[in-house]
Amino acid sequence: MNKTPGNFTNNTKSDILIIAREIMYKDGYEKLSMRKIASRLGFTATSLYYHFKNKEELVLELVHESRIRMAQFISNRLKKLSDPVEIVIESVVSYIDYGLQNPEDYKIMFMLPYPGILSDRLKEIVTDKIEPGILDLAKRIEEINPEHKNNSVDLAHALWMMSHGYISTIITSREDIVYDQESVYKYILKIIRLVITSPFDKK
User: Fold this and answer.
1) Sign of the torsion formed by the C-alpha atoms of 196, 83, 97 and 111
2) Is 78 left (phi over 0), alpha (psi -120 to 50) or beta?
3) Which of 10, 72, 159, 174 has the fewest C-beta atoms under 10 angstroms from its C-beta?
4) Domains assigned to the chain
5) What pLDDT was estimated at residue 116?
């Protein structure tokens, strides 16, 4: 039997987001619908609108929660570190760890296509909030090696892109790419340490 608004529990909103996350991870944004979520929960579709104005607002809330969780995860891993080299390395490690431990969050934030207006609003939630982290990473790189002063932002973006590629490949289970996950992970860390501490090659 479908549930009416009077049957809602204190966890109803969270339940809606959990189901929406599962659907989007498996089928993408286009396959997500309020009716499909309601069916999974045993509610009427109308009941969901007590919590979210529409599908777009639900997705914005979902992505916002995912970004907050990721930011907190990384912050907790960095707060006891003081050495710039270890901070840069742990920034990448914790980013990778979060993505692999929370593939639904990661895919929803960074790997799914969204329609125009929604895409612009999501950029404000995710991309624009990540950029300060990139700039902080660039600052740490400059502390480690002043020779990187003029290219530290590009280097920080390169580290993010390398991490993103690694996470995305694993999440999508690319069968056309044969590799040893643990070995690649170790090489990524070696590359990071080598690049940020080595003299800058201007060629």
Assistant:
1) negative
2) alpha
3) 10
4) 1-52 (1.10.10.60), 56-197 (1.10.357.10)
5) 86
